[in-house]
Design goal:
The chain has about 150 residues and is of the alpha+beta class. It has a single domain, classed as 2-Layer Sandwich (D-amino Acid Aminotransferase, Chain A, domain 1), CATH 3.30.470.20. Helices cover about 20% and strands about 35% of the residues. Strands 4-3-2-1-7-8 form a six-stranded antiparallel sheet. The longest helix has 18 residues. It is globular.
Length: about 150
């Protein structure tokens, strides 16, 4: 790979948080690269259900300022939760009606927009942000540049 000199490697260990809601925020439209539309996808429980495609998450389109432009609620029938013996486990959402409810309200979406703005201020435009809500706490889990073909 053409690496010369001493290499450095960092190993990060991140605590598994018991997320009630988790998902991803793109600070651009990841398909088109358009910067005036931010995309939030969210589901109940750990974000693993979203990232692995086990659920069709709720889909929100926001302005960079946090104004909700569009919302598509989806059936979130599966939830992944931490297992007491370690790791995670998947099971059906206990109340089928809950699977149909929005897992984020407008206040949570505004907080996510503020997180997106802070991440862009630190790392530049077009960020892919994984996040979790634990009670009232919004946690940043991961942030990196958008890597899709639509990146401007």
């Amino acid at each position: 790979m053409g690496i010369t000199g001493e290499t450095h490697v960092a190993v990060l260990i991140q605590e598994l948080v018991p997320a009630e809601v988790a998902g991803v925020l793109f600070t651009c439209d990841p398909l088109s690269g358009v910067r005036d539309r931010w995309i939030v996808e969210a589901s109940w429980g750990l974000g693993e259900a979203v990232m692995e495609g086990l659920v069709t998450p709720d889909h929100h389109t926001l302005t960079p300022g946090g104004t909700l432009l569009a919302r598509q609620l989806c059936s979130k029938e599966t939830v992944i939760i931490p297992d007491a013996q370690g790791g995670t486990r998947q099971h059906p959402v206990s109340d089928p009606a809950r699977g149909q409810q929005a897992c984020l309200d407008e206040e949570a979406l505004a907080r996510l927009a503020a997180l997106g703005t802070a991440c862009e201020d630190l790392f530049g435009p077009a960020q892919d942000i994984e996040w979790a809500l634990v009670g009232t706490r919004l946690l940043l889990l991961h942030c990196r540049p958008v890597t899709s073909g639509g990146k401007p």
